[in-house]
Design a protein that fits this description.
The complex is a heterodimer of chains A (about 850) and B (about 190).
Chain A lengths: L18 H5 L15 E7 L5 E7 L1 H5 L3 E6 L23 E2 L5 E7 L2 H8 L3 E6 L6 H6 L14 E9 L2 H6 L3 E9 L11 E6 L5 E5 L4 H11 L7 E5 L14 H13 L3 E4 L2 H7 L6 E9 L5 E11 L7 H10 L1 H4 L5 E8 L14 H18 L4 H8 L18 H12 L1 H4 L7 E11 L14 E7 L5 E5 L8 H13 L6 E5 L16 H28 L6 E4 L2 E4 L6 E3 H12 L3 E6 L19 E12 L6 E11 L6 H20 L5 E3 L8 E3 L17 E7 L21 H13 L2 E2 L1 E2 L3 H12 L5 E2 L14 E3 L19 H5 L11
Parallel strand pairs in A: 1-12, 7-32, 8-30, 10-11, 14-15, 18-19, 25-28, 29-31
Antiparallel strand pairs in A: 1-5, 2-4, 2-6, 3-5, 7-15, 8-13, 9-10, 9-12, 13-14, 16-24, 17-18, 17-23, 20-21, 21-22, 24-25, 26-27
Chain B lengths: L7 E7 L2 E7 L5 H8 L18 E4 L2 E4 L12 E3 L12 H8 L9 H14 L5 H8 L10 H22 L4 H5 L5 H8 L3
Parallel strand pairs in B: 1-5
Antiparallel strand pairs in B: 1-2, 3-4, 3-5
Helix pairs in contact in B: 2-5
The chains are: A alpha/beta (about 850), B alpha+beta (about 190).
Chain lengths: ~850, ~190
């Protein structure tokens, strides 16, 4: 798409368009909404991890003063879920509870305190079923099944893909590296607790305000779960007080208050407690992984054989996509001529895992980058130089048929090497101090939709007013990342007006065209392109009207500084407002639309729907650590990071995304754990969260955050709006492996699992002192994963056409693909 | 004073204005502000004193409003984010937070602004370590904190400049000098 020359909006550090509302406390989050006659909802959640519901007695709760309605699973016969292949949730459990926290009943009462008191009056009799606490447990015991669907036993999904003769490639290599890693789960921890308000509007239709990153998917889920026409449901995504992927699923509490509002014809609100937010989860999957990698003596990768085992928790969520993502992007970063990926997600009786910032890719990234550090050491190569030599070529197809765009990774590596003083530090610092390096890549939006169809992924409508004001409508959701600012910035740049002249109306299924949501780092690229298209169409109408008036060729009409004028004689022109009026007089009401649909992916094999993206961002990071060799105590004084942003639309916001990613990556690297424990039998043996509170679930504060040196690399990607790529997720990915590599540089011990804690370092130091391998990490990868026969796909350079040679012919590509293609994580 | 309904009458000063409410005795100041006085600018993230989102000033001192009972505030002065502005112009901290990326999702922002104001009220020119220490009870999941620290530093500088102007003899030059609140001015006039 051709875009006009700079109008001083794009690329300039600006106050974000919603900045004033946020610093004055006027941003209206879901729990800030109050409606007349509003009632409040509380959920009764299962106290046992896995059981059949024998009996529920709600009579005392229903009779409690101030209670208006009590609901159980009987009211919710229809299952829903975000991926079409795993509609496995009911708003309230019907026959089985699958984790501590699964909702069983709901009370709607005059206030929260009354609802909470009545919830305590509900009696539930459970018949316990076997509790599955770990993936190994679930693999070993296929019965009883947590769900009656899935591949086999308690295996939700096992996938196997092979690109080229990987066994020959690895056995023919000069060196073979075989390493096992573990990445603990972590949760999003948005400071805003999920909240939803539902009501019947005066016309009798349903309106739902919710802290959701994906109003479109919530819209679909409500229509299904409530068996209502979607046209009679309006979902309004309130600005999210942080999301990071944790508000991407349609949630049971949203369905419950919607149903309650319809039944009572009154507004109903729910706001989850912090403890409930921990149990809602849908966060980072714990992943055990094994990387077998063949390398030539000069450091080229010959082939990679990757296995991953994901602890999915109790429901499907985005899990099938998460599984594929653990193996999808390795080839996007480095040149891997032959590749086999096997991924398995199992159900356990814990809160469901799903997409957290980086969605499924940080785990595999951690293993690959730590292994590369080992490879460099064995080959006596500098890890930065080794990586520079194997970076994937731009504008190429990978072994797994992902089409790459611009790649600024070489520049990123060079920049962090220079800014960090890498060459003077690596392996040269005194004992206890170290530096580590890692790289990464990430999607700029999932290339295929969750619900397979040929429709655009993002739509923008513009209304141009006689006042000279413009309203931009888009379904995109402001979750803090600045999507409203991107929308307004793109339109302002094209039309040559000030962002303050534009009103953004977003995330409202009644008013705005569909945008699939704030996940998979898709909004800037997809909404941005749609916004530019809509604005270019409006510009064209105005230019035609003004060219007549000025009697000049339309190509000479220029838009700048709220004026529309002759490029050759700039003083000849009209105001933007006059131009709108001229266009309206000539063409009628001025409204335009723009749409964005990603290019078709060349990956035609089943499972090839996860990984394609219009283009990819790249990042390199160096993390410095100081480790006390006596105690293992670990601090991070500084991080240097360079990110290939394509083009920086608003540098203030871009920097914020990079630093926020570094912060969240450090949280995962150092301390964050979504971990569970069994209560003792006398306390029911329940499987509960170890520390469901903000105080005890450790996350970095102002005091732990190190100095960050950020470089932005502008590779001007032709696929992006004004050349832009994503920034919300990619910069998180290299932080965890760079930190683990830095610990090795500092004290010579390998911590092959996340988080890297002082306890683990101390244990490894003690092993080292005892003359044993100085490593803490998983011992091995289970041999009892029921892997299917791999789909055999010939890589492009061996003449492959993107199809699997051994895949049964699919009747309809659309049907077979449904739900496998998917999406990724998220940000703020 | 307990009313026949079991509710209690509460009179206090909120953002320099008198406020009265009939509140349940168990309600926290946070709930009184949000639910009874409809001042929803103050946020909650835990209701356990762990996140700092609900910070307000009570008689000028920062407190976590989720840990204070409403009825404890009888006759006292409360300042919330809605009271940071004392005119049509934003408080300098609000301006710099908006300009320098210190607010992303905006949810922790009111609590951090209030806590930062309390710091600048007692420390005109805080060091970076003092800023970190003062704000260490406020969690933010979006920014990585660095742009917040820079905004507080810039806010301190602007407040210092404002004080200089206020204390200086009022001449034409000093009145025209400060570049304070330039972004609000830009918003009004949008001089492209």
């Amino acid at each position: 798409m051709t875009t006009p020359r700079s109008n001083g909006v794009i690329g300039v550090a600006r106050r974000r368009v919603d900045g004033r509302a946020k610093v004055t406390g006027q941003t209206r989050f879901a729990d800030d909404l109050t409606l007349p006659r509003m009632l409040h909802c509380k959920l009764l959640r299962s106290s046992v991890p896995h059981a059949r519901i024998v009996r529920i007695d709600t009579s005392k709760a229903a009779a409690h003063p101030g209670v208006h309605l009590v609901l159980t699973g009987e009211t919710f016969p229809i299952a829903y879920g975000v991926l079409p292949v795993s509609h496995d949730e009911h708003a309230l459990c019907r026959e089985t509870v699958r984790f501590v926290g699964d909702p069983v009943a709901a009370v709607i009462a005059r206030d929260e305190a009354t609802a909470a008191a009545a919830v305590d009056l509900i009696e539930v009799e459970y018949e316990s079923l076997r509790t599955y606490a770990s993936p190994e447990d679930s693999l070993a015991h296929p019965e009883p099944r947590i769900h009656d669907y899935g591949d086999v036993g308690n295996v939700h999904k096992a996938v196997s893909l092979q690109f080229g003769d990987v066994d020959a490639a690895i056995s023919g290599a000069d060196h073979v590296f075989d390493d096992v890693f573990f990445f603990e789960g972590s949760t999003h921890l948005p400071i805003e607790q999920h909240a939803t308000v539902a009501t019947k509007d005066p016309d009798g239709k349903l309106v739902v305000w919710s802290s959701t990153q994906t109003p479109h998917y919530l819209h679909r889920a409500l229509a299904k779960a409530l068996q209502m026409p979607a046209a009679h449901i309006r979902v309004i995504a309130t600005p999210n007080g942080g999301g990071f992927g944790g508000k991407s699923d349609p949630f049971n509490h949203e369905v419950v208050v919607a149903r309650a509002a319809l039944l009572l014809d009154r507004p109903v609100k729910i706001c989850l407690t912090r403890e409930e937010v921990f149990y809602c989860h849908r966060g980072r999957h714990p992943v055990l992984m094994r990387f077998r990698t063949g390398v030539t003596k000069d450091g080229q990768i010959t082939g990679v054989d990757l296995q991953t085992l994901l602890d999915g928790g109790a429901y499907g969520s985005y899990g099938v996509a998460s599984t594929f993502y653990t193996g999808a992007l390795q080839t996007v970063t480095y040149n891997i001529p032959a590749y086999r990926f096997r991924g398995c997600r199992v159900f356990t009786n814990k809160p469901p895992c799903g997409p957290k910032r980086g969605h499924g890719t940080p785990q595999g990234r951690f293993g690959q980058e730590v292994q590369l550090d080992r490879i460099a050491e064995r080959l006596q190569r500098d890890p930065a130089e080794l990586r520079l030599q194997i970076i994937a070529p731009p504008n190429s197809l990978t072994a797994n048929f992902l089409r790459l765009g611009t790649i600024g990774l070489t520049e990123c590596v060079n920049r962090v090497v220079a800014s960090s003083g890498w060459k003077d530090k690596f392996r040269k610092l005194p004992l206890g101090r170290g530096v580590g390096l890692a790289c990464s890549s990430y999607l700029s939006g999932a290339g295929l939709p969750i619900n397979w169809n040929d429709l655009p992924h993002s739509g923008v409508q513009l209304k141009l007013d006689r006042s000279g004001g413009v309203t931009a409508f888009c379904g995109a959701t402001e979750i803090g990342q600045g999507s409203d600012d991107v929308l307004v910035g793109c339109v302002a740049e094209v039309l040559g007006i000030d962002p303050f002249d534009i009103r953004a109306v977003t995330g409202d299924t009644d008013l705005t065209p569909v945008d699939l949501g704030s996940y998979s780092s898709r909004v800037t690229l997809m909404m941005g392109n749609a916004a530019i298209e809509a604005a270019m169409r409006a510009r064209d109408l105005l230019a035609r009207a003004v060219s007549c008036k000025l009697e000049i060729p339309v190509e000479r009409v220029t838009f700048q500084r709220r004026r529309v004028f002759d490029a050759d004689v700039p003083e000849r022109g009209v105001t933007f407002q006059e131009a709108v009026c001229m266009a309206e007089a000539r063409f009628g009401t001025i409204g335009t639309t723009g749409s964005y649909t990603p290019p078709k992916s060349p990956a035609k094999f089943k499972g090839g729907g996860v990984g394609p993206s219009p283009t990819y961002s790249y990042t390199a990071a160096v993390v410095a650590v100081e480790v006390d060799p006596e105690t293992g105590w670990l601090v991070v004084p500084k991080v240097w990071i360079a990110h290939d942003i394509g083009r920086s639309l608003n540098p203030t916001l871009v920097r914020g995304q990079v630093e926020g990613s570094v912060y969240m990556g450090l949280g995962e690297a150092l301390m964050e754990e979504q971990a569970f424990r069994r209560l003792p039998p006398r306390l029911s043996s329940a499987l509960v969260h170890k520390f469901p509170s903000l105080l005890e679930y450790k996350s970095p504060t102002f005091l732990e955050m190190p100095e960050v040196h950020t470089d932005l690399i502008e590779s001007m990607d032709p696929a992006g709006p004004f050349g832009a790529k994503e920034v919300g997720q990619g910069p998180l990915l290299p932080i965890m492996p760079a930190l683990a590599n830095a610990v090795y540089d500092a004290v010579g011990v390998r911590i092959d699992e996340i988080p890297v804690t002082p306890e683990k370092i101390l244990k490894a130091l003690q092993l080292k002192a005892a003359g044993r391998p100085a490593r803490v990490g998983p011992a091995g990868f289970p041999g009892n994963v029921p892997w299917p026969e791999p789909l055999m796909v010939t890589p492009p350079w061996e003449g492959g056409d993107g199809r699997a040679s051994n895949e049964p012919v699919r009747k309809s590509t659309r049907k077979a693909d449904a739900g496998v293609e998917a999406t990724a994580g998220v940000r703020s | 004073m307990v009313e026949p309904t079991g509710k209690m009458r509460l009179s206090l000063t909120v953002n320099r204005e008198p406020a009265d409410a009939l509140v349940d005795g168990y309600k926290t100041l946070l709930e009184v502000l949000r639910e009874d006085l409809r001042l929803t600018g103050t946020k909650h993230g835990c209701e356990l004193g762990e996140c700092g989102a609900c910070a307000v000033l009570l008689d000028g001192e920062p407190v976590l409003s989720c840990l204070v009972l409403g009825v404890e505030c009888e006759g006292r002065r409360v300042t919330t984010v809605e009271g940071l502005q004392d005119s049509a112009e934003l408080h300098p901290l609000q301006d710099v937070f908006a300009d320098l990326g210190a607010s992303q999702c905006g949810y922790c922002t009111p609590g951090i602004l209030i806590t930062a104001k309390a710091l600048l009220d007692r420390e005109l020119n805080p060091t970076r370590d003092q800023i970190k220490e003062a704000l260490s009870g406020n969690l933010c999941r979006c920014t990585g904190y660095l742009q917040i620290i820079e905004a507080v530093e810039e806010g301190a500088a602007r407040l210092a400049a404002r004080r200089l102007v206020a204390e200086a003899p009022q001449t034409k030059e000093t009145l025209a000098a400060p570049k304070l609140a330039q972004h609000d001015a830009r918003a009004k006039e949008a001089p492209l």
